[in-house]
Specification:
The protein is built from eleven helices and eight strands. By secondary structure, it is of the alpha+beta class.
Length: about 375
Amino acid sequence: MRAGIANEVNDMSSYEYFNWDMHPWIETGVSALVALVVMGVVYRIGTMALRRLTAPHVTADIVVRYATRPFEFILSLLGLQIVWNNAPPNLHLIELIRHLNSLLLIAAITWFGIQCIRGACEAVVALHPINVADNLEARRVHTQSRVISRMLMSIVALIGLSSILMSFPNIRQIGMSLLASAGLAGLVAGIAARPVLGNLIAGLQIALSQPIRLDDVVIVQNEWGWIEEITGTYVVVRLWDERRLVVPLQWFVENPFQNWTHTSSQIIGTVFLWVDYHMPLEPLRQELARICKTTREWDGRVALLQVTDSSERALQLRALVSSTDSSRNWDLRCLVREKLVAFVQDCYPQYLPTIRASITEEGQKNEHGQKG
């Protein structure tokens, strides 16, 4: 009898515990599902309206396309945060769930900011294509937008990470205690982070003053190539043989280098030849003009042949030829060198550089006398 009464009391206690503990969670869970559905509908309607409004505008359309995915997470997490904040305060683990949801919401907002900056950068790049003949202005805009956007994205990410860390009371207290001794710590941190800060400042300086731009032709440490990428800390130079030279940003501020496309991509190349003193130069000048006129690499500006040096054996000739860019000029120089050498070989082979020696009669007598 007593055992039956005890079992009945236990059953009633379990029922009361279920009613007391699980019922609020069921209501909260249903509210969370409703919030997700509502926010999903708001997201669908909002994105459709935004895409229709921004379709005629390239910049706004690209930014919206980049920001839609993180915006979906923000709406969902915002709806859940409203549900968790209105849940009963004595609900089991509700404080932990609120904190986790707030952290995820901060991360989603940070992602949203980064994607908006990235979308704006891509929109600016799309409005200024570099696959045109005169792309100097486009390369300038590309360089500025990419360097500045990377710096802004780094700042947004730093703010988001700081906000997440500041949401923990213990870490906040540690940060406040560190600020009290910020004098010495700031000095040590500044010395330790000098290379990083130097590269960041150099990146800002390059973005504003533009000594280099994307797709510029440069000579760095005796290597010829194109500026392929400019990050927040280094520059990637694509060399002519498809190697990649990685150079810190600060190097470009502190060291001299050659930029062949700083103001224009037009360039004049040189071709050197050595010929005999008796070689007539006018046929060579006519041949140079004919070669340049028959090739697409020549831009019609410069085709000049000059005597630039002489030695005891031959004359040095320099042919100057111009092109719209360095790649075309390299091909033109190789072509001109090949054609001019072939012209001399075919028409004036006797005037190729030779070594002359004269034998006098006195020298012959001395030679015969020594033999006798």
